[in-house]
Structure formats: C-alpha cells, structure tokens
Design a protein that fits this description.
Structural class: alpha+beta
Radius of gyration: 16 Å
Strand order of the largest sheet: 5-2-4-3-7
Order of helices and strands: HHEEHEEHEEEH
Length: 185
C-alpha cells in the first residue's frame, strides 16, 4: 500500500494550498454570476462559498480516511487528481461534469462483477442541480481547506472511471465495509 505522503498536499507538514487568481476565476465560473461571485469572494478571501455543481465541475464526497487513500492512489499510481478539499471531516474530490451521474452506474456494475469483494459505501455525488460549500480562497482556521487547490482557469478533472478505480482500490485496501448504500450518489 502506498503512503499518504505520496501526494505532497497530504503531508502533515505541508500547509493547505491557496487558490490562485486563475483558480478562483474557474471556481466562480460555476456560479450564475461569476463576476459578482469572484468580487464578493475576493473581498472576503477567508470565507467559504457555496457553488453549484454540474457545469464547471461535479464533486465526489467521501469520508476523510477513504478520500485520503483515494487521493494518494490517484497521485501515486494513477493520473493525479483535480482540486481536492476537506470540508467538515469529508473529502471533496472535484471531478469532470457528468461524473455524478455516471459513477453510481459504474459502482453498481463493479459490485455485480466482483460479488466476493467488499461492497463499498457509495460516495455522495454532487452534480447538476446540487451545490457544495467550497473552502476559502486563502487557508485559515476552520473546518474547510484545500489539499489540492485550483490553480488554473481550466484544471484537469478526473472522470468517473479514474474515481471508480481509486474508490474501489482504496476501499479494498482498507477492507472497508461499504454495503450501506442509503446515502449513495
């Protein structure tokens, strides 16, 4: 198993990352009024914001320990990750639009294909019609912080296949029982 420090952002000695101006513009582009959102956020860079999902990004929301394992796998053995944040003890993995719709079907297919494998507790998937609270532009005290902050106007975002791979590998490595699917995608 890989270590959590394979991704520099997860090293306990590394502070939370800061959102660059280009990354802030990308985040604001998700809102109905990007310029107003960006202006308000720049006026209060230590305040979190609520942004809609489904156009600029989707979000896959998992328990923190599982999310840390997923992020580590994505960096150590996979394609890397897009922006990732911690919010109130949960990991928010920013994904390509459409991931929230596609990932549940892939998870169901994975469970049918490998019934002897531990069944994973489905991640919460936020897509079109949903909104998420994102951490402040600048890190500070509080329950939210960026582990991998957006730093470009168009950051690379993993799709459902990459997140399925990381989710299944992380859950199996941790031997997590995630058969309770009440709060699925």
């Amino acid at each position: 198993m890989t270590t959590l420090t394979s991704c520099p952002a997860l090293d306990a000695r590394t502070p939370a990352t800061h959102v660059t101006p280009a990354g802030a513009a990308w985040l604001a582009s998700a809102s109905a009024h990007p310029h107003g959102t960006l202006h308000a956020w720049q006026g209060r860079p230590t305040a979190p914001a609520v942004l809609p999902c489904g156009t600029a990004f989707d979000v896959v929301n998992v328990p923190l320990v599982l999310g840390r394992r997923m992020l580590d796998l994505l960096w150590a053995e996979g394609p890397g990750s897009g922006p990732a944040a911690v919010h109130r003890g949960r990991m928010l993995l920013f994904a390509a639009p459409g991931t929230a719709h596609r990932l549940p079907a892939l998870l169901a297919w994975e469970e049918r294909g490998a019934p002897a494998a531990p069944a994973a507790s489905a991640p919460l998937c936020h897509g079109r019609g949903d909104a998420v609270t994102v951490p402040p532009l600048a890190s500070g005290p509080g329950p939210s912080r960026w582990l991998v902050a957006p730093d470009t106007r168009l950051p690379w975002l993993p799709g459902p296949e990459a997140l399925l791979w990381a989710f299944v590998r992380a859950a199996r490595a941790a031997d997590i029982d995630f058969s309770d699917r009440r709060s699925g995608c």
